[in-house]
Amino acid sequence: MPPSTDLLQGTLDLLILKTLALEPMHGWGIANRIQQVSKDALQIGQGSLYPALHRLEYKGWIKAEWASSENNRRAKFYSLTRAGKKQLEAELSNWDRLNTAIRLVLEQI
User: Fold this and answer.
1) CATH number of the domain enclosing 63
2) Distance from C-alpha of 47 to C-alpha of 63, rounded to nearest angstrom
3) How many domains does the chain have?
4) What is the dihedral of CA 84, 56, 40, 19, to 10 degrees?
5) What would the pLDDT profile of 30-71 be if each residue is shown by its tens digit?
6) pLDDT of residue 70
7) Residue 77 belongs to some domain of the structure
8) Model's pTM, two decimal places?
9) Full domain range(s) for residue 99
10) Does 52 reside within a domain?
11) How confident is the model at residue 90 (pLDDT cuts 50, 70, 90)?
């Protein structure tokens, strides 16, 4: 099992929003997609994922609907709201600024 990777505060929200921009997904699908795309570098546990999903739903950035999963089990599927799409754009912009600032510092030290 790869070592645990701590995420900057707010980064999990960005990863979830970006993942849901592709298509609605259930919680396990979101965690699995993030793990696959990161080549197993990021593993999101249920103890982090579900509180984040509830927080994003409370903020109105995602909505949840019950539906059947690919294996015919009932699951809550999450999707972006219009407000969530706007928030994703803002979060990506903030991420770009932060990434640039950190890179500048690292190149000088």
Assistant:
1) 1.10.10.10
2) 20
3) 1
4) -20
5) 999 999 999 999 999 999 999 999 999 999 999 999 988 888
6) 82
7) yes
8) 0.86
9) 11-108
10) yes
11) very high
